[in-house]
Write a structure and sequence with these properties.
By secondary structure, the protein is an alpha/beta fold. It has two domains: about 300 residues, Rossmann fold, CATH 3.40.50.10640; about 110 residues, Orthogonal Bundle (SSO1389-like fold). Helices cover about 40% and strands about 20% of the residues. β4, α2 and β5 form a beta-alpha-beta unit. The longest helix has 18 residues. The protein is elongated and about 90 Å long.
Length: about 400
């Protein structure tokens, strides 16, 4: 299934011209209509900015949205296309109070993600022909992030394609070529690495703490960064162990960003001779929302206790490299070889190894070697507890969980 997203500017001067796309000729005043017709795309989402509102006539958000929808649909002869109005800035009449442009990005990301989750396409097309200034660039980045977030747990592969037209010259009816200017075929591993890349900068933790989670009591930046590093390094035991805490974090972040849901928009804005957006939602909010969403998907289906088989499945599907996958699976195989000496109650892995090999050092409970924590896919012997029940092995960090979290706040 295909879906097309098209950010647009002000369509009042869009002229009907002849477009050449996919070797065919189509006459229309909107390039995305030519693309959708040529490629047989039935789901088309058009993003228009709130700055199209005539605030001399309309003095509240809903009136502005209704007027924009009526005018854009009429001008572009839209029928089955979905038109969504998003907060954007323009000139000195449509501004965020903090003088940033983040609400546009946040809104495109959040609404795109919800649409993708509902419709579940495997091919995403973006038409950047009609957007102006920052809109095509930021919309593309936000749609790509939403696509990465959506596909984890949904699709093994997704294709992203970007189209652009030759510049239309007023009075010249064409023909104008619409070309595919970018194509990306992404799998889950590439998706994970793309999302995790946002968490690599040295000051990102401070941005999360001071901007994203400011005023949030049930979530903290240490947990976010530890979880990002755990996912990058294949330490799935940690993710499984803190999944309930992360779900609470996601709820808190969702409460912040879902004010931008186009169906129930609850943004704080003032409409006068222009529009001033009062909400301060940083760009990092989308990255944290994305991370927490994919971790929830990755850890879904895990019961009260974490099974070794749970970790195996996560490693096979969500490892960020073949090396990490091999490390985790090898550690699991080594544990399974010792199932006969496991007890029905949790024991420290170091003590289990010592009982199997009398020369093994006595365990230093909750004193992990940081290098070994990463080198052994989280199965560090001084913080890992194991027990068996029938043929199933259960794994836990037990009382050492906080020690593990501290080590995971930064990579080696």
């Amino acid at each position: 299934m295909k879906i097309l997203f098209a950010p647009i500017g002000d369509p009042k001067n869009y002229e009907e011209v002849e477009y050449i796309v996919n070797s065919g000729k189509i006459n229309t005043n909107a390039s995305f209509k030519a693309i959708s017709e040529s490629y047989g795309v039935k789901d088309v989402i058009v993003y228009a900015g709130l700055s199209l509102c005539d605030t001399g006539k309309y003095k509240d958000y809903q009136s502005c949205v209704s007027s924009i929808i009526n005018e854009v649909k009429s001008k572009l002869s839209l029928r089955d296309e979905m038109l969504i109005i998003v907060p954007n800035v323009y000139g000195n009449k449509y501004v965020q109070e903090d003088r940033k442009i983040t609400l546009f990005s946040n809104s495109i990301y959040y609404n795109t993600l919800k649409i993708l989750e509902e419709r579940k396409p495997n091919e995403i097309i973006i038409d950047i022909t009609h957007g102006i200034n920052y809109m095509p660039l930021l919309a593309t980045d936000s749609i790509k992030l939403a696509t990465y977030t959506y596909m984890v747990g949904e699709k093994d592969k997704v294709t992203i394609e970007i189209f652009n037209s030759e510049p239309v010259i007023r009075g010249n009816k064409g023909p104008y070529h619409i070309s595919k200017v970018y194509e990306e075929k992404v799998d889950v591993r590439q998706t994970l690495l793309s999302i995790l890349s946002y968490f690599l900068s040295a000051d990102f933790k401070n941005k999360v703490a001071n901007n994203v989670l400011k005023g949030v009591s049930n979530c903290n930046a240490d947990l976010i960064m530890s979880s990002a590093n755990a996912l990058f390094s294949g330490i799935f035991i940690f993710l499984a162990s803190v999944r309930k805490e992360l779900e609470e974090c996601l709820k808190a972040v969702e409460e912040k960003i879902n004010i931008l849901d186009y169906r129930y928009f609850r943004g704080n804005l003032v409409v006068d001779n222009g529009i001033v957006y009062k909400d301060r939602l940083p760009l990092e909010l989308t990255y944290v929302h994305s991370l927490l969403t994919i971790i929830k998907k990755i850890t879904s289906g895990i019961g009260m206790e974490v099974k070794l088989s749970d970790i195996r499945l996560m490693a096979e599907k969500y490892s960020t490299s073949e090396t990490i996958k091999s490390i985790v699976l090898n550690e699991i195989d080594q544990i399974n070889k010792k199932i006969d000496i496991l007890d029905s109650s949790f024991q420290l892995y170091a003590d289990i190894l010592r009982s199997a090999d009398k020369e093994e050092e006595k365990g230093k409970e909750c004193e992990p070697n940081k290098r070994n924590l990463f080198a052994h896919g989280g199965f560090e012997k001084n913080v890992t507890y194991l027990r068996k029940e029938g043929n199933e092995v259960y794994v836990s960090y037990g009382k050492c969980l906080e020690n593990v979290k501290k080590h995971l706040q930064s990579r080696i």
